[in-house]
Specification:
alpha+beta; Double Stranded RNA Binding Domain; hpI Integrase, Chain A; 3 domains; five-stranded mixed beta sheet; three-stranded antiparallel beta sheet; elongated; disordered C terminus
């Protein structure tokens, strides 16, 4: 292979030796060569050795399309990949295979499965972050349970808005409005992924109507709080109510700290700073992806101590009874809550109502905490306290003293409510 200081003029006039395929190696950029076929077709090639010492070659395009300067720049980039341990030929082959597989995706089932796979890696839309496993698990449930049986074999490009609307209406009638909403959300995400990957050109979900979300306003009375608290404390003695001690403590802790189900159930021992009496929830576990610091009242510390004694050596405060290296799921709280409240005769309340009840008590006349501070306790990132939204970006004050006073006042109120005997207290048996 002749070595030449390649120039634009040389490349234009280069001819093959003895009418055979000839390569002219560039003396400036190692690995770059100009190939000239007997028919006069000229193209660039890059030769390299992999980490396994295999010699390989990739094409960089024809001279008519890629200039000498561009070819040299391409070689610099490819050589950097080789030094980083990559194999440019293998990368190209994988990309080509992926393109072939993507071009074959047609049905709702095929595109949906690829969507969930890519969402787990954060490649389901431009500039996306990885979807949380809990979110993927929830979306996959609605996809497998409701979308696949009805539309799985249909081509994604063949579905019309009317077909999607019919699915949503049927699910709402047969199951629940909330289930119908989730089915639309999943299909909308799949179609957005399909458009981005050029599998389809339109998203028929765009104008599909779903039952409106009904905002809940349920707030527990003091009497109901007392009944619930005592029911959770006595649940181990109740006949026909199967709720573990750990789960009952988790519900009580949710009532005391006013944090979300998933944040409670996923609590790790490492998140608890006992000396400072703080619970530091990392951003990867919060709804708004921001680290949230929760001051712990003496009542909260007492409940955490009780839970850790039950957890054994697990890193989680509320480990799964089947896999101690995993936490219990948020749904476990909902199922247990439903069983306990049914036995205690409490109607129409859910675990999330505890947050609303606590927030309402904090802003009431008896505790007089500002709504802005309550939003900080609840970790509502959208509340800027009647200031410009940009202020929230720069204001990283966590309001720890104020939040501590608020949560300790709420814990004190809970102690008062749950320790006072009431005529409507029900003992579950």
């Amino acid at each position: 292979m002749p070595k030449v200081a390649l120039t634009d003029a040389f490349c234009r006039s280069a001819k093959p030796h003895e009418c055979k395929l000839t390569e002219f190696a560039d003396t400036k950029e190692r690995g770059l060569s100009l190939r000239v076929t007997p028919q006069g077709v000229k193209s660039w090639t890059f030769r390299y050795r992999t980490a396994a010492n295999e010699q390989k070659r990739i094409s960089l395009g024809r001279l008519d399309d890629v200039s000498l300067a561009a070819a040299r720049a391409a070689v610099v980039a490819e050589r950097a990949r080789v030094h980083a341990g990559q194999d440019p030929a293998a990368v190209r082959k994988a990309a080509k295979q992926e393109a072939i597989e993507t071009s074959r995706l047609e049905t709702v089932a095929e595109v949906g499965i690829r969507y969930f796979s890519e969402a787990a890696a954060g490649r389901h839309r431009p500039n996306a972050r990885q979807k949380r496993q809990s979110t993927l698990k929830s979306e996959r449930y609605y996809f497998d349970r409701h979308v696949l049986p009805r539309l799985g074999k249909e081509k994604l490009s063949d579905l019309t808005r009317a077909r999607v609307q019919a699915l949503v209406n049927a699910v709402a009638d047969e199951h629940a409005p909330s289930t119908a909403r989730q089915c639309k959300v999943v299909l909308h995400g799949i179609y957005s992924f399909g458009i981005w990957q050029e599998i389809v050109v339109l998203n028929p979900c765009q104008f599909v109507t779903v039952p409106q979300f009904q905002t809940r306003e349920r707030v527990l009375t003091d009497g109901e709080l007392g009944v619930l608290w005592r029911a959770l404390r006595d649940v181990q003695k109740a006949d026909g109510v199967y709720v573990s001690h750990s789960v009952s403590v988790a519900i009580l802790l949710a009532a005391v700290t006013l944090q979300r189900r998933a944040e409670i159930t996923g609590m790790r021992r490492s998140e608890i700073d006992r000396e400072a009496r703080l619970w530091i929830i990392p951003g990867k576990r919060t709804k708004n992806h921001r680290t949230h610091i929760v001051p712990l009242s003496p009542l909260a510390i007492e409940l955490i101590d009780e839970a850790e004694a039950l957890a054994g050596g697990s890193q989680y405060v509320f480990p799964s009874p089947r896999k101690t290296d995993e936490p219990i799921g948020p749904s476990a709280l909902s199922h247990a809550f439903r069983r306990v409240t049914a036995k205690a005769g409490l109607v129409g309340i859910r675990p999330h109502d505890l947050r609303r009840t606590g927030a309402t008590a904090l802003t009431s006349e008896r505790l007089s905490v500002s709504r802005f501070l309550v939003s900080r306790v609840l970790n509502h990132a959208s509340d800027t306290g009647d200031t410009a939204s940009v202020t929230g970006i720069y204001d990283r004050n966590s309001y720890l003293p104020e939040k501590r006073r608020a949560l300790e006042a709420w814990a004190g109120e809970l102690n008062r409510i749950t320790s006072c005997p009431a005529s409507n207290v029900v003992t579950i048996r």
